[in-house]
Amino acid sequence: MKRITLLVSVAALLAMIAMLPLSAVQADGHCEFAEDSIKIGGLVPLSAPGAVAGGVAMSWAINRAADDINAACGVSIDSVNYAVEIVIGDSEGSPERGQAVVERFILEDEVQAVTGVYHSAVGLATMGMLDENGIPTVFSEPWNDNVSANGIMEYDGRPPRNADGVDYVFRVSPASSMVGGVVVDWLLDLGVGNVVIIAENTDYGQPAAADELARFEAAGATVTQINVELGTEDFVPILSRIQAQAETPDVIRVLVTGETSYNLTQQMAELGIAPSDDTICVTNQVAFQSEQYWQNVPDGNYCAFNRVGIIPSLFSDTAVELNAAYFEEFEDIVPSYAMASYDAVWIIADGMARAGSSSDGAAIVAAIETTDLDLSQGRYYFEYGNHNPDLPQGTPAFMWHQWPDPVVTMMQYFEQGQSSLDAAVIFPEVYQTHGSGYIAPGTSP
User: What predicted TM-score, i.e. pTM, was given to this entire model?
Assistant: First the structure.
């Protein structure tokens, strides 16, 4: 893949430079960097069975952020400018492989921070290692609720909190419960009563399915859950079982990620199961990458999908610039996990600049906890952490080191080959773009 260098607009570049101390900018505009660079590890899936398309987008965004930071003379610490250097590692979507890459990051590459991670299983498997080694980390895509949690909670028998009392892991992607609530609320508003959930057998799919199932059943809906493995190519036996049900489902909810979700969605459509007059198709967020979606799901018109991230009509200048660069590289719309990965690198760099250190992990964490930055997806801040440790009663534990304001919407295609920029935002009502909460197959809004 080619690597591009795209000059940002004057306004955007000034905004970027303003984020760092003024001493980082030379009077003549020339950047002089220290011999040592700041190394940030980017952990992304670039091989099967991981979500390769997602990993490629995230890798591009992480490198893009470093390019833009370095164009603004890098990170200034004690009046010395440090360039940001990215070290990419392929998780393959595997917890074991993710752990091996993080070990390499720490012992061989000597990274000072980490970002990325697409799969929840990889985030859960590596967060303990990152905490134990005091590596400030901003995850940009894993959704499992437990990826961000109060330090008193444990995963795999170990508390996320480091022995020094510091939690080193932050998250700017939403928790599954934040996304599931929007999806379920929308479907219940439509009056669905018979739901089929097809969920991948992973640390993303199973907790997400459990959360949505509980929400549906609490509202009186009937739910059938079917579990599948990532990498499955033939879903006909599973779909045939759905067709054989005595009662046609009102909705099929796909909790399967990456390329596997494309296979499932296309086969549902080919068989006429969903989308149809009787059954709503709700597929995975990768449907937002419209070029890839239509190549892989040519019969997927009228499928709805959850979209995480600011909607295109509300893109800021930074988002517009990032989308233009992404489109030039991939001829597609920038997905939310690329935007989040780009923003995560900026959050880390800003934290190091304000901490006055690229090596004092605890100081960097304290600075990130007080983040207040406007980036491609909106204003970033972390409401709860050591700076504000008391979660009010009823506040989910995953709000610890969690960005509380990711935008979650439901979108729907209504024309074959449609760009996701033109797809309808159908829920929540405040974000609706076409005046409709659902577009029935064969109609237009």
Answer: 0.82
CA atoms within 13 A on the CB side of 301: 14
Q: What are phi and psi of 186, to 5 degrees?
A: -65, -45
Do the beta carbons of residue 402 and residue 175 sit within 8 Å? yes
Are 285 and 159 found together in one domain? Answer: no
Contact status, residue 355 vs residue 364, Cβ threshold 8 Å: yes
372 and 241 within one domain: no
**Contact residues for 153 (Cβ-Cβ < 8 A; gap 6+):** 146, 159, 160, 397
Full domain range(s) for residue 218: 176-308+407-431
- Assess whether 295 and 422 both reside in one domain: yes
Query: Do 227 and 300 have their domain in common?
Result: yes
* 425/276 Cα distance (integer angstroms): 19
Cα first-last separation, the chain:
39
* Length of the chain measured in residues: 445
Segment (H or E) for 290: helix 290-296
**pLDDT values of the chain reduced to their tens digit, one per residue, 445 residues:** 222 222 233 334 334 433 443 333 333 357 899 999 999 999 999 998 878 989 999 999 999 999 999 999 999 999 999 999 999 999 999 999 999 999 999 999 999 999 999 999 999 999 989 999 999 999 999 999 988 875 556 655 565 666 677 899 999 999 988 999 999 999 999 999 999 999 999 888 999 999 999 999 999 999 999 999 988 999 999 999 999 988 999 999 999 988 899 999 999 999 999 999 999 999 998 898 899 999 999 999 999 999 888 888 789 999 999 999 999 999 888 999 999 999 999 999 999 999 999 999 999 999 999 999 999 999 999 999 999 988 899 999 899 999 999 999 999 999 999 999 899 999 999 999 999 999 999 999 9
DSSP 137-191: EEESS---GGGS--TTS-BTTB-SS-TTS---EEE-SPPHHHHHHHHHHHHHHTT
